[in-house]
Design brief:
161 residues; four-stranded antiparallel beta sheet; alpha+beta; five-stranded antiparallel beta sheet; single chain; elongated
Length: 161
């Protein structure tokens, strides 16, 4: 039976490239000269450092611009609250989300069932597998999911005949 997987995964190579480019721009910008503004990455966790909340917002803007240019959807980024560290310096942890959360996966399965296409959807960990008898039904399901799911960026892979 033809099938495909619905996933939500950020390209971590492009995230690393965007962080490197953001740090390079921060290092050359006049308004950041002499400050401790930077972005550090540990796996799927980015830590944004700055001297003030205003600078922190500017660093985040630079980071999101670089992410957009590298075609990394900013909906993958989940920002925590701003923490004060020594003196006036602040930091913020930004998590790069991967995988479909269980409540969103249930919503996707419900959308597929409510759409009355001749396909079945099942949750498999952090992915949703959609199977059907015809490739056309699967393609119609992909199109419907692209239109109706706006909360998270979706990708379709592992397409099998």
């Amino acid at each position: 039976m033809p099938s495909f997987d619905v996933v939500s995964e950020a390209n971590m190579v492009e995230v690393r490239n965007a962080v490197d480019q953001a740090n390079k721009e921060i290092g050359t910008r006049f308004d950041f000269r002499g400050s401790d503004a930077r972005v550090e990455q540990k796996e799927a966790e980015l830590t944004v450092f700055a001297d003030s909340e205003f600078q922190l917002n500017q660093v985040r803007d630079v980071l999101t611009n670089k992410m957009t240019k590298r075609k990394v959807d900013v909906r993958f980024l989940e920002e925590s609250k701003i923490e004060k560290i020594s003196g006036d310096k602040v930091k913020q942890i930004v998590t790069v989300k991967n995988g479909i959360q269980s409540d969103m996966a249930k919503k996707i399965v419900k959308l597929v069932k409510d759409n009355k296409l001749k396909v079945q959807a099942s949750i498999q960990g952090e992915t949703v597998r959609v199977t059907g008898n015809k490739k056309d039904d699967l393609q119609a399901t992909m199109q419907m999911l692209r239109e109706k799911v706006k909360d998270i960026p979706l990708e379709f892979n592992n397409f099998r005949n």
